[in-house]
Amino acid sequence: MRITSKVLITLLIVVAITACFSLITHLSNESQPVGDEIPARILISQTPLSTPLFVAKKLGLFKLHGIDITLIPCNGGVECMSMMTHGKAQYATISESVAMFNSFRDTDFSIISTFVTSDDDLKLLALPRRGFTSIRDLKGKSIGVIKSSASEFYLDSLLLASGMKPTDIERVYLKPDKLIQMMKIGKVDAISSWEPWGYRAQATMDVVNLGFQGMYTLSFNLATMNRKDETSHERSKRILAALQQAITWIQDHPEKAKAIVSDTLNIENNQLDWMWRDYVFRLSMTNVLLANLQLQARWALEHNLVEGKQPDLRSILDRSALQAMQDEVVGQ
């Protein structure tokens, strides 16, 4: 039986309409907001490491995944963690070093996912005009560090790698936003800190980095207070789903992502370019994180920075929300 041209055209139109309807339905299902919104408060460190959260907020991805989000700025992971444990929010962005130190005092919190890593975020900066060209030149000198943080672990790792002892230098504990000023006026001879302070230091004075790239890989993580109820689990799962979507968007649109961060933190594109190349954005919970936590815990005990027995650091890693989110993505 021959099919007339008119019948063939009609069939093609029907097929095209069906395909379009299926595509629209699929896209609608992918971006359809989730049921009732769950309120969530996240303490967020004001650093480009927090990019996935800034992007998720800007693009409305938290709302898309059923989260009524409030982002509360804080000055570094130490402050974020302290505020969370005092009930200011359910979540906080912290490095693994901050998690390790707090695990000796309180195990009623968990890391639910790493969302970015960097092997060059921390730096040991000094002023070359004062004759500092290598870390060995700092023997007997004062170094500004942020207590109980990645800043302190990084400094001691550099000293060990250079054949120096922790007692070879004087450490001066400072808030992150005081480091540059204290070095500039000569109150400390060098500073150990993360970005954006490294960039801000070199933007205002001539500095030399006495550290080594790759000596330490920083992980930035989302932590929460332990709550074993269904709402808390669902909230964490939705937040991670929003961050996963944000990370995919960041990888596809790096320049637009940098523009969001630049506007949010009021920093220049040059500063972001300085740091961005070292960032790896990815949701994960790997054995590398556990190994780093255990290594840093032994270091803290050996240097009398903490008291008591080493806790079981596996107890502060909870991948249940991450696994549930990933299972849902696979099942779609």
UniProtKB/TrEMBL annotation:
Its main location: periplasm. One of its GO terms (cellular component) is periplasmic space. SUPFAM superfamilies: Periplasmic binding protein-like II. Residues 50-257 form the SsuA/THI5-like domain. It is found in: Periplasm. GO terms for biological process: alkanesulfonate transmembrane transport. Keywords: Signal. Coiled coil: none annotated. Gene3D superfamilies: Periplasmic binding protein-like II. Belongs to the bacterial solute-binding protein SsuA/TauA family. This is Putative aliphatic sulfonates-binding protein. The lineage of its organism: Bacteria, Pseudomonadati, Pseudomonadota, Gammaproteobacteria, Vibrionales.
